[in-house]
Amino acid sequence: MCIRDRMGSFIATNLRILFYLDTNNRINLSIGLDCVLSLEVKSTTSNLRGNTEVLIVRSKFQDSRFEFIFTNMNLGRTTALSRMQALVRAYEASRMYREVRLRGAIISNKNLMLLPREKVINRYNNVWNLSSDQGNSGTFLITNVRLAWFANVAENLNASLPYIQIKTVKRRESKFGLAVVVEINKASGGYLLGFQTPEIDALLAEAVNLHKLFTEQPIFGVEVDAQLETAATPQLVRKSEDIELTDSEYNEAGAMLAARKYGGGAKGSGDPSEVIFNEDLGLAMERLPRGVTVESLWRIIGGGPSSSK
Description:
Blueprint: E1 2-3, E2 6-12, E3 16-21, E4 28-32, E5 36-46, E6 50-61, E7 64-71, H1 83-93, E8 101-102, E9 107-108, E10 111-112, E11 120-129, E12 136-143, E13 146-151, E14 158-162, E15 166-174, E16 177-184, E17 192-196, H2 200-216, H3 252-263, E18 275-278, E19 283-286, H4 294-301
Antiparallel strand pairs: 1-2, 2-3, 3-4, 5-6, 6-7, 8-14, 9-10, 11-12, 11-17, 12-13, 13-14, 15-16, 16-17, 18-19
């Protein structure tokens, strides 16, 4: 993989994109999928590799926006970058695993709408939510992914609390008596939600244990086919050939004579159209303006900064 003509390794996980230089892994990049604004995969032409894929990642962090361009230098994995769009879509579709939802569409016919790989561990009835002055009676559910509660009188009065956003689950004294208090991380609002039930000891112990278990073995909900390579990598076989090298009658003096004859400029004249012999190309050419190189002209012909050398 190449970024800004620097060769490195590209890694995509279920949470972020990683890139580091092969020559110095201290120079690296980490882009969380939550920071990605858009992805664009398009074909381009490389001077050395021919047709190849380019991945353009537009992202944000706080008040700053960034754009990164990755060029696929592996001819055998032409679909790897295009699968990135499927990865980002899977991440967006799994936000319920990671985000606190209050009054969301999580209940249907008095049952929790389960997420993929989610299982209901226990269900407690007659659990009071203490968020209002008088409290609301409802049903409290504990799953392997989150804690959830909904009111018996109105399903839209509910809460979905993923373990990944829970800071602590403790027993505290409230104006209604002892209650189970769930504290949410500051990044997700820093809420304190209290619940009261006659089975407070069993509910608290179960919630604490499952929260600890999730911390050790989290489920992020991002499910993507791990097989990014669908086509077999072609095997390039090197063949040795018998080649006889002979001296050429071509020489620089002859090239310069032709340049002066047909180019209209004389060597050393200072004319902007002065023709010189370029050793790298083996051709006569007009002298380039100051600051312009043959290498930079090749990049322009190859499609600009997004092309790889």
